[in-house]
Structure formats: structure tokens, C-alpha cells
Amino acid sequence: MDCPFCGTEMIHGYLNCGNTIWSERKHRISTLPDGKEKFALHLEVPVLSPNHVESYCCPKCKKIIIDSSDYENNFD
Length: 76
Ligand SMILES: [Zn+2]
Fold this sequence. Notes:
Elements: E1 11-17, E2 20-23, E3 39-43, E4 51-57, E5 64-66
Antiparallel strand pairs: 1-4, 2-3, 4-5
The chain binds zinc ion.
Zinc ion (ZN) binds near residues 6, 8, 58 and 63.
């Protein structure tokens, strides 16, 4: 995949992460959604090893692209 920002070929890899949420607001303590916010990429604390979220990183401009469609969200 070429970077949509600068055109450089992106590097395939994984976001290795624990509990995670993309949200329109900042979470101060927990990463649980409160029912009013829009959220995506909601992942609970992993049991054995970090979560592995397939993604691409641009080696030039350092942007990371994640297809979050396979993860919990409330956009539907
Ligand atoms: Zn780039």
C-alpha cells in the first residue's frame, strides 16, 4: 500500500497494544465507552499477549493506517 499522504510504500505490521479505544473524547481512567460517545477500535485488556492490530506505517512521514472495520465500534 502506498501512503495516501506522501506516496511512499508503506510497511506492513501490527499495532501491539493493550486495552484500546479510539474515541472522539479523551478518556481519563478507563477505556470503556460511556454510551454517548462515538468510538471505534475498542479492545479489551489482552489475556496472554498484546492485541495485534494489522496496520501499515509510512517510513517517511510516519503516519499509521489502521482498518478498524473488524473491531468493535458504534458507527452502525
Ligand atoms: Zn507518508
